[in-house]
Amino acid sequence: MNYYSLNNKSLTSNFKQAAITGIAPDGGLYFPEFIPKLYDKFLANLSTLSEEEIGLKVMQPYVGNEIDKANLEKIIAETINFNFPVVKIREALYSLELYHGPTLAFKDVGARFMSRCLSYFNQNNNKKITVLVATSGDTGGAVANGFLGVDGVEVIILYPKNKVSAIQELQLTTLGQNIIALEVDGTFDDCQAIVKQAFVDDAVNAAYQLTSANSINVARWLPQQLYYFFAAKEFKNQLPIFCVPSGNFGNICAGILAWASGLPVHHFIAACNTNNVVQAYLQTQNYQPQKAVPTLSNAMDVGNPSNFVRILEIFNHQFPELKNKLSSYSITDEETISTLKQIHQNYTYIADPHGAVGFASAEQYLQENNSIHPIIVLETAHPIKFDVTVQNALGINLDYPASVQHLLTKRKQTVKLDSSYSTFKDWMMSR
Ligand SMILES: *Cc1c(COP(=O)(O)O)cnc(C)c1O
């Protein structure tokens, strides 16, 4: 499979090159040259297949012969070695819990797949790879965890100071070894802008073999399709609606890609907090990036979602088709809190703030549409990652899982930077 740059279709790379470089040399996002069509037989038999079998079938065409079958099987098995339960909330409303991985958020799948692909590709290379990643909260921990202790790879994480939760911060600043955390006095968009600029900076690229681990990297983006197939296993003969808490739009874009390759889906809902660029676009057909606004669902505080161009590409930039398949709602922090309470009171279910944005969006969709389709809300993080918000909203204490308990005794280690590119570059060039 080849991938082209969304800025210039004639600029192509294979999966290995796209995974290593992260972004095309012209700064464009990579996109598969064609969307593989899955066989009807595979789709009809989904519920009888194991998650590993589904993973292999879905990912193989995207990886091509860049990784042999035995190694790809192994990488997939390691990537998805935890559970993805579908929990019934009430009639026709479900929570697909994607937070049972090591860092308690859905990003573990993409990060684990990518880290294993990169170490596979780097095994005979003696030049160190530097993974440069901006995080709004959960990416950093997932990527750091995926690469911790991997030979020949170092990870540099940029995160916005005071804008991630305490547990998120501990997950990305306490690992040490080959993991370095940069505490940037700015927003996630500032961090992302620095990373984007570094990739097109000749001096930095001469000094480092850089790769990106943001959701723009195909090795992180593509395996997220698997959630949708795993959920669909349980909804035979029913066309589900997927409601996806969205920030940078990588996860929902992977779901839409799964649909484009044949997975039956009735509709997608992009559940957003007050950062509502896509909702506004769907109303006005005018895409206006905004400055990110901080909210309680901080992993979705994105004012210019990178992956949205990939969604446009899947729809061939045909607005009516896109609007027909995708809705978006914008949920305030007040609504997020009241939804956390309602879901707990009415269904004894504890959501996290991102999931709550999802449930609130699902309710709004139901008010506007007379739908008989099951709605599957992707619960993207464990409520404990946002313990202060959830405990205050519900007036209860949450138990810390063991993976969090051991973090509480560790010391944070960061390099503090302002949000200018030149400060970052000086730091990089003087290491
Ligand atoms: C990253 C993240 C999101 C947003 O996912 P995108 O792929 O960036 O849209 C939603 N919820 C949580 C908990 C996250 O960590």
Explain what the structure shows:
43% of the residues lie in helices and 17% in strands. It is α/β, with parallel strands linked by helices and 431 residues long. Strands 4-5-13-10-11-12 form a six-stranded mixed beta sheet, with helices on both faces. The chain is globular, with a radius of gyration of 20 Å. It binds pyridoxal-5'-phosphate. Pyridoxal-5'-phosphate binds at residues 105, 107, 137-138, 215, 245-251, 299-300, 354, 380-381.
Give short descriptive properties of this protein.
globular; 43% helix; binds pyridoxal-5'-phosphate; 431 residues
Shape: globular
Could you say which small molecules are bound to this protein?
pyridoxal-5'-phosphate
Indicate the mean pLDDT.
94
Secondary structure class reads: alpha/beta
Cα Rg: 20 Å
Low-confidence stretches: none
Q: What is the helix content?
A: 40-55%
In terms of DSSP E residues, the strand content is: 15-25%
Distance between the ends: 37 Å
Q: What is the count of DSSP helices, taking H or I runs of 4+ residues?
A: 20
Number of strands: 14
Largest sheet: 6 strands, mixed
Spatial arrangement of strands, main beta sheet: 4-5-13-10-11-12
Helices, strands, pairings?
Elements: E1 2-5, E2 8-14, H1 15-21, E3 30-32, H2 40-44, H3 51-63, H4 69-79, E4 86-90, E5 93-97, H5 107-121, E6 129-134, H6 138-147, E7 153-160, H7 166-173, E8 179-185, H8 188-199, H9 202-207, E9 209-212, H10 218-221, H11 225-232, E10 241-245, H12 250-260, E11 267-272, H13 277-284, H14 308-314, H15 319-325, E12 326-330, H16 333-347, H17 353-368, E13 375-379, H18 387-394, H19 402-405, E14 415-418, H20 421-429
Parallel strand pairs: 5-13, 6-7, 6-9, 7-8, 8-14, 10-11, 10-13, 11-12
Antiparallel strand pairs: 1-2, 1-3, 4-5
Bound molecules: pyridoxal-5'-phosphate.
